[in-house]
Automatic annotation (TrEMBL):
It holds the Pfam family HDOD. InterPro entries: HD/PDEase_dom (IPR003607), HDOD (IPR013976), RNase_Y/CdgJ (IPR052340). This is HDOD domain-containing protein. It comes from Sedimenticola thiotaurini. Residues 29-216 form the HDOD domain. SUPFAM superfamilies: HD-domain/PDEase-like. PANTHER family: PTHR33525, RIBONUCLEASE Y.
Length: 285
């Protein structure tokens, strides 16, 4: 196999092969846990109740524990601590529990049996959790947006990287030189993420997050702050102090930052709550 510094390496051909592999189930992609899919079917059934959803989730002790932690997280601080799945769903709200289930299922998506990309996958998950945490802090200032949706948007924004990493396992020289792999990921992760989330029937606004979060010159319809704006700003905050190219973005010149509000961003950047971030990480793992 060749790497992307070799003239015979063709990113377009790599992308076409990757999409074909996904369509024909020839690539070992992570999937949403069976218990999550079962719970989502119940949630989407108009005749279902909270008790029906609780019954399904309670069958999986790991998912049940995660949902209880979710309800007790900074997203849903309450006077008292909930300890049962039914109480957790009551606190979260039936309308929001779909996004909660998907958020909690994402940890299983960001796993791999390929040891050569395990470190990359773990780093990707850690970054996604950080972006999700920052997104929920930002979205609290925009009543037309939803905190659970922002959380999920943060977790899935880079999901298109996963199939690229898995396909790259077939190209040893591509893995050996991280700069080349990074170029391939930068080029493909948004269209692949859009393709993947569309196949998983995610809401259109979440598909748009995966498809557009790195487009620094984009403008939301109507000019109103949307989830792509929130995730773009959260990404910028997440990369501050690193050697990533996003660390060099001037928030005072970035269009999404201007829409979200420079003063708000600066204030949140100075008030990062490490305890909140730790709780979010514990909740999702």
């Amino acid at each position: 196999m060749s790497s992307s510094d070799n003239p015979t390496f063709d990113i377009k051909s790599f992308a076409n092969t990757l999409v074909e592999d996904i369509e024909k189930n020839r690539i070992r992609l992570p999937t949403l846990p069976a218990i999550s899919l079962e719970a989502l079917l119940v949630v989407n059934d108009a005749g279902s109740s909270m008790a029906d959803v609780a019954k399904i989730i309670s069958k999986d002790t790991s998912m049940a524990a995660r949902l209880v932690r979710y309800a007790n997280s900074p997203l849903y601080r309450g006077v008292s601590t909930v300890s049962s799945v039914k109480a957790a769903i009551t606190r979260i709200g039936f309308d929001a529990v779909k996004n909660a289930i998907l958020s909690l299922a994402m940890r299983d998506v960001f796993t791999t049996s390929f040891r050569v990309i395990q470190d990359r996958m773990e780093a990707l998950w850690k970054h996604s959790v950080d972006v999700a945490t920052k997104a929920t802090q930002l979205v609290a200032h925009f009543p037309h947006l939803n905190k659970d949706e922002a959380m999920l948007a943060g977790l899935i924004h880079d999901v298109g990287t996963i199939p690229v990493l898995i396909k790259a396992v077939e190209y040893p020289l591509l893995l050996e030189k991280e700069a080349n792999l990074d170029k391939v990921i930068d080029k493909l992760h948004m269209p692949v993420g859009k393709f993947l989330l569309s196949r998983w029937n995610f809401d259109p606004q979440l598909v748009e997050v995966a498809a557009s979060h790195d487009k620094l010159d984009r403008a939301p319809k109507g000019g109103e702050v949307d989830y792509v704006d929130i995730i773009q700003v959260a990404n910028i905050l997440s990369y501050q102090g690193t050697d990533n190219r996003w660390a060099d973005i001037d928030i005072r010149k970035n269009a999404a930052c201007k829409r979200v509000g420079i003063e708000l961003i600066l204030r949140l950047g100075e008030m990062q709550d490490e305890d909140d971030e730790s709780q979010f990480s514990t909740m999702l793992n």
